[in-house]
Amino acid sequence: xxxxxxxxxxxxxxxxxxxNPAVPYTVEEIAREAKSAYDAGAALIHLHVRxxxxxxxxxxxxFQECVDAIRKVCPDAIIQPSTGGAVGMTxxxxxxxxxxxxxxxxxxxxxxTCNFGGDEIFVNSDNTIINFAKIMQERxxxxxxxxxxxxxxxxxxxxxYKKGYLTKPIxxxxxxxxxxxxxxxxxxxxxxxxPEGSTWTATGIxxxxxxxxxxxxxxxxxxxxxxxxxVYLEKGVLAKxxxxxxxxxxxxxxxxxxxxxxPAEAREILGLAPLK
Length: 276
Fold this sequence. Notes:
Elements: E1 6-9, H1 27-40, E2 44-47, E3 49-50, E4 56-57, H2 60-73, E5 78-81, H3 91-95, E6 106-110, E7 114-117, E8 120-122, H4 126-139, E9 142-147, H5 150-161, E10 171-176, H6 184-191, E11 199-204, H7 209-219, E12 222-225, E13 232-234, E14 237-238, H8 242-255, H9 263-270
């Protein structure tokens, strides 16, 4: 079984300081939270960025500022910009996060349209998926195929993979508890649905975080955790930092006999080039 890659999703686009005062908005806060996660054992920082007032943005300049700040305190971490952005953004707005220098090693690729609750619909048409995969391939960026249900796996394979813009081994991120329920049964179904040789990460939203983390560790996958997915360390107890959430994953892994991957080991597992 591979060592465990921990991905820290440090702020997301929706959670706010009203949910937890430690949610980062400013460049300095984002660097602080990235470092807290990195120091605790996260090899990969999944990055959304905000303006100082908390408004989510895909602005290239803001991503560049945040990536540069993270690099100063987490020099070898894998930094994975999100191309998800926020509900209502255009494709071009969302892809702006990949225009930074140097070109990101990885970026997210959302593989289907998702109901986020109420009237919020996160639209990813077949053409959007193909276009994003094509551009990432041209730029030498490894996609993390973010899927919210099993149908999105099928969509990715029949669109971007069929046209040659996704190549094996594919890395998947299962986000459970939004559109598909977050149970061990559902996680196992997702894992059984991806092509042989794939790598995968999973997360459970909110109260589902720790059940999915434990199951993922046991099943040989990799864990995503952070304020984007939960602001609680346990029921009723707000996490003081992303680092506290990562520390809890490390503790679970230790109990279950799984070693934690360093950034260099994570690059090897994910098929990324060694850091120069």
